């Protein structure tokens, strides 16, 4: 008598993925890479993540775009100091439902921090931030360009014109 069993390709792939995630977690714990984010739940990795940042330059400003889907404005902190623009915050894990089974979890959750060094000729008091469709946009206006000033060199000893209120130097033979 022959016994036949069914084969489910996706079940095998899921088992292989779960095994790989377990191995990665153990390796990360061994080397202390998870730190405080060492939560491991339903195959989701708690490793740190960094959002994608794009920086473009316009004639009047720099535009910094950061992909932050699922991050609320209350979970963001943006600072600018000494030419360093820092974007930090946290993306929270959505609560698990007992009726759902996770088959693949590629999104990263937890704290993040990105810092970008900008040129010194920006107006820090004019920086504006807005978010739409999961993209944070930070507009950093440029300061007016500083032009070099030509300085006239005067010849000492009375050959140059005196400024108002200056007295003529005493004669050399006096």
Distance between the termini: 134 Å
What order do the helices and strands follow?
Answer: HEEEEEEE
Rg for CA atoms: 31 Å
Can you summarize the main beta sheet? 4 strands, antiparallel
Name the shape in a single word. Answer: elongated
Strand order of the largest sheet: 1-2-7-6
Number of helices: 1
Alpha-beta content class:
alpha+beta
Task: Provide the residue-averaged pLDDT.
Answer: 76
**Low-confidence segments, ≥5 residues, pLDDT <50?**
33-46
Strand content: 25-35%
Number of strand segments: 7
Question: In which range does the helix fraction lie?
Answer: 10-25%
Kindly describe this structure:
This protein is 13% helix and 26% strand. The strands form two sheets. Strands 1-2-7-6 form a four-stranded antiparallel β-sheet, with no helix packed on it. It has one helix spanning 9-30, and strands at residues 53-57, 61-67, 76-81, 84-91, 110-117, 128-132, 135-141. It is elongated, with a radius of gyration of 31 Å. It starts with 8 loop residues before the first helix and ends in a 33-residue tail after the last strand. A hairpin with a 2-residue loop joins strand 3 and strand 4.
Short description:
With 174 residues, the chain is α+β, with helices and mostly antiparallel strands. The protein has 1 helix and 7 strands, in the order αβββββββ.
């Amino acid at each position: 008598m022959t016994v036949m069993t069914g084969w489910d390709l996706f079940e095998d792939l899921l088992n292989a993925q779960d095994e790989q995630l377990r191995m990665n977690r153990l390796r990360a714990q061994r080397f202390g890479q998870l730190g405080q984010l060492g939560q491991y739940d339903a195959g989701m990795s708690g490793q740190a993540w960094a959002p994608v940042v794009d920086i473009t330059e316009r004639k009047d400003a720099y535009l910094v775009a950061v992909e932050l889907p699922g991050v609320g404005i209350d979970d963001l902190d943006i600072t600018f100091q000494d030419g360093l623009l820092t974007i930090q915050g946290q993306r929270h894990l959505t609560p698990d439902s007992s009726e759902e089974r996770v088959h693949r979890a590629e999104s990263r959750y937890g704290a993040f921090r990105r810092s970008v060094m900008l040129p010194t000729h920006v107006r820090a008091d004019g920086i504006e931030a807005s978010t739409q469709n999961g993209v944070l946009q930070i507009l950093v206006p440029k300061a007016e360009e500083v032009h070099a000033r030509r300085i006239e060199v005067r010849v000492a000893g009375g050959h140059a014109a005196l400024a108002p209120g200056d007295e003529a130097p005493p004669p050399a033979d006096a």
